[in-house]
Every structure is written in C-alpha cells, then in structure tokens.
Design brief:
mainly alpha; 13 helices; Zincin-like; four-stranded mixed sheet
Amino acid sequence: MEQAYGLYTHIQANKRRSVALLIGLFLLVYVMVFAGALVAEALSGDARLDTLMRAALRDFVMALPFATAGTLVWIWIAYKFHQSIIDAVTGGAEATRQEQPRLYNLLENLCISRGITMPKLKIIDTPALNAFATGLNDKQYSVTVTSGLLAALSDAELEAVLGHELTHIRNGDVRLLVIAVVIAGVISFFAELVFRLFFQSGAIWRGGRRSGDSDGKGAGGAVVAIVIALVLVAVAWLLSIVIRFALSRQREYLADSGSVELTKNPDAMISALRKIEARGDLDGANSAVMEMCIDNPRHDFADLFDTHPAIAARVDALVRFAGGHDPGPLALPAPAAETAQSADETPHGGPWGAEPAAKPFLPGEAPVKLGNPPADAPSPWGPRR
C-alpha cells in the first residue's frame, strides 16, 4: 500500500481540484441565474423563443454583479463559520486537556512526532462510533470524535483513528470536502429559488395569452423557454451532487495507509474499522457531515454514490499491503446504561442484602451433583456421630 502521509502527488492534485471546484462553483451559479432569468421572462409573457432568450440574457448581464457578490459572501460565510454550523448540527463541543487527557495526549503525541500543528479537539456526546476532521487552514482545523468511539476503542485503536484524520488534513482532503459542500449548498439554494419562482406563479399559461402575438405566432415560446430553464437547473443541480461524489474514494484508502505509517500498527487500524463498522450513523447529521466521517454507513440506490469504500474492502487493503490481520466483524460489549438497567431488574435478596450473582455455567465445567452426603462425610460443625 502506498504511504499516503505527505504524499506529494495527492496533495498537489487536491489543490488543483480545490481551485477547479471554486471556478466550477461560479460557472454553475451563473447557469442558475440565467435559468432564473429565462423563467422570469417566460412567466411575464409569451413571445418567440429567440426573443425570450435575448431578454433573459439582458437580465443575466444585469444580475451578474449581484450573483458574483452573493456567491463571494456565501464563500466568506462558509470560510468563517462552517465549523460553527457543523458543531450546531452535530452537537460538537471543544474539549481541553483537562477534560479529555487521554484523547488530547494521543493527538498531541501524533502531532509532535511529525511536526504537525495541533488541531482543535471536539467531542460529540453520542453512542455512535465515528470521527471526522474539518477546516480550511491550520488555524481552523479540528478533529471531532464521538463519546461512543472513546468508550469502545483502545488507546492503540483510537490513535489509529486520529492518525487517519490527521492524514486527511495533511493531504488536503478536508479542505476539498468543505469546498464541495459549499458548492452543493449554493447550487441547492439557487435551484430552490428558481423552482419556487416557477411553482408559485400561476401565470404560466395566462402570460402567454396576455402578451403573446395576436395571431398566435408567438404562442409556445414561453413553454419551450421554461422547459430549457428547468433542464438547466436540473443539470446544474445534478452536477453539484456529482462533484461531491466524484471526490475519489481513494482518499479513504490513502488516509488508512497514512495512519499506519504514523502509528506503525496496521492491526489497530483494522480493529478500529471493524468496531466502527455499521455503528457510525450520527443522528441529526446531514449527508454533507457524514461524507467527512471516517465511515459513512448510509447507502443509496445500488451503492452507486457511496462516499466511502466498504469497511471490508479497506480492511482487505490493509491486510494485503500493510501486513495487518483481520479479526472479522467484531461484537462490542453492551453499553454501561444497558448493564445498569439489567442490574436494576435483577430481583433483590433477603433482608441482609442482595443475593450474589449466579455463576454462569461454562461448557467445560462439570455439573454439580446433588443428593445426600456420605455417612462418613464431616458436617460443618465437625465429624458426624
């Protein structure tokens, strides 16, 4: 397996993709603005298609500065406040060394060993097993871990997960994902505006009758214009979704590999993935947040747009190329809350306290034989007479 940590070609490719995504964001926004102008012209009155297209182009040129300014403001808001938005969605809270000494020390040691700027540390209070990294620069980077992950993983496994997230930061995956999510948000916002303009207006056909040519030669231009506009909106929206899913799943393999290079412990990465497997769904988190996680258990139709490779495939890669050993799917002990509840339901003993817990029967243990004791067997108070 390639050693991904600091992999120059991967980092450079992510930088190029980030620039391309930002350029693509503006192009998609402009397409949406033109589509909106076309719908507005079509709803205002029927005319020949070429007339409506020219009118929409004039509207587009007039709206261009406002669309550009609005997009720049959106990007600035995402740049400054994306972490606050994510924390509000997930319930993440910053943790200090005093509050989480075990986790903090593991992360700090990894950063010191490679001279990495220490990211902020955040905790989500949830039994789900997951972790993710966010941020756009060294001052913003943070690693978020769930309380369920802290309880279920050993120090070595937790260190492997932290190494995975640090590799995402180092390789530029985190920045790329945040930009892709921003693009999807902007396009979804403009798409909703256009569709609201279309569906909330009841003047589609009345507009054609109101201002169309008297001889009917212009009839139908508005309908065709609206169809073209809706197709443009749909294509732009689909492209924004494809951009998010087009980010190579290879980034997860590379982050797993980078973690192994950091910790020199492939078995810890494998066992961590096996424990996280199918236990990482964060309640209340949208799909954009789940895409940033170490595992996204949510699947769509035929798994065509899954953002992460299957855990089994990632484990297989670590076994084949990093020399790890796969224990197979792992069962976790019942949460402490369930254990306490079971204890509360256990019937209490007599007036002198609770009865001791019954010793479980073990397959290799001989059953106890009941019956009268031998005549010469001593009693608790001495020899029998």
